[in-house]
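3.2 Worked example (two chains)
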Amino acid sequence: MSSRLSNVDALRGVAALWVFAYHLWNVFAPGYSPQGSPADHKPFDADTPAGVVASYPFCAYGYTGVGLFFVLSGFCIHLPQARKHHTKGGDDLQPRPFFYRRLRRLYPAYFASLFLAVAGLLAMTATLDGAAQVPLAVVGVFVMVNALFLLAVRPDALSLNGVYWTLWYEVQFYLAYPLLLKLCRRVGFGGVAVGLLAVELLFTFVPTPEILKPIAPHFEWFFLRRYFEWFLGMWLAERVAKGVHLPRWVSLAVAVGGAAAGVASSHIPVLWAGHEFWLAVASAGVLSLLASPASEPTPGTRLARGRGVLAWCGDWSYSLYLIHMPVLRLIFAGEAVLPVEWRLGGSFYVAGAVAVVVVPATAWVWYRLFEKPFLPKPTAPPASTRPTQPALTDTPLPVGGGVTGRPEPVTSPCRG
């Protein structure tokens, strides 16, 4: 059986598509998202477009995909290590090779996206009415800050591409992972969970002390604000490696309860600050439901085919996440310079329809050019365990061990 968990790849596809849908939805429904504080929400009234109301339940919470990505990241990074620990009795994590693998996996597509982000930013500022041109020197600083992951030093560099803040978190997560792993082995996962949960709740609900307010923007993306969410994925990976899965009713209760708490608190001012935390908890419940062999759909069924499509999207979900906002900027900047009669004729909606096709297509090309060449190559099992082709048969053996029949690495549970 393959160690690759296709359901996890499918969840990655869901997360990226959901975030893309959310940002595209915001173009047509600005101000309705519950991601902003309740005081800033646009209330529904008689003038609210029917399309906004109909799409709200799904699109308005698309930013939940970020919390899902954090949970999935913790799961995918730790599962190979957890499997090694429970089969060989030790971790033997080498920080230098680990960091090199993470850099090789993430940085090429990320660095290439910086130049697409520059084009998107310049196009947007050049076409928006009343928007000031961004000096090229400032754009250069933004590129350097993002390329070196220095958003804490220059927070306004995030204007280059609004999703880059999550990469800043991920880099911190990776840097702290060897220490986190040692801590978990020494004091136990339960003790670490309590500590990280307390820190995240402290950051979420306790106002910034007056003495720290002048430097508060520089700590806006300090990793301990969200490390508990990453740790949830790590904890689930540890259980999967042991073969000890949460009961389905517990996972379902966490998923449904977290989602209900997140949605409810997103509309209650005093609780709003914690609503993304609850949505991330719900994501962990969903992952717990799906990250087991028992949850894999039967091959050949409609459910398996749908999961296969989402798993395919999961392959290039990182590229989609990186480039969707710059491409959206370029598309709508192009629409903004069309003749007035075209714009009055509905070209804005045509641009939205074009984005639905062009953004994923661009992401797939990006994946092929800047991401796939740097992925670890699939490794064959040892010769002693490798299946052999029967001498007389018209049916070839499937390539790899996965349900989809795609070549899959033996050592990696998902494209993390």
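3.2.1 Second chain
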Amino acid sequence: DHNRRLGDLEQNQSNSNVTVNTLDIARIGLNNDDRPSPSSDPALQALNLPDKFDVRFYTGSSNLTLNAQLQINELVGLMVRYPQLRLMCTGHADLSGDRVVNLNLSRARATTVRNYILDSGVNSERVVMNFFGEERAETRGAKDRRVIVTFFVEP
């Protein structure tokens, strides 16, 4: 299920006209079936980690809220204790505003989350990013202003 979703991400991305930076999931082959989820790792299995979670943002902002910082701090603690844990940060925007501005905003959001994690001392190869602008907007509101953090483990 986890690998299917990641494969869908890349498939949908390859069908879009969105330019993605070099830390893109396609570059690292994250859609491969050999990219196991945390539930496949005995040390991580007992944690019952979700496949992913959302970091939310205010309208037009890529600044982390206090709640987002607390979420990410917990995540960094997990990454320190479990070096096999890897992340993909996927930025999104809602449908309000200009499409190009939203694409740049989703990139800025993903970059902000990734940089916050890296500034905590996590190795850069463990955190990749992707972004879609408003292309994956679902609700036309606050739920689309997010970075989806997806967990996987190094095979």
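3.3 Remarks
The first strand starts at residue 52 and ends at 56.
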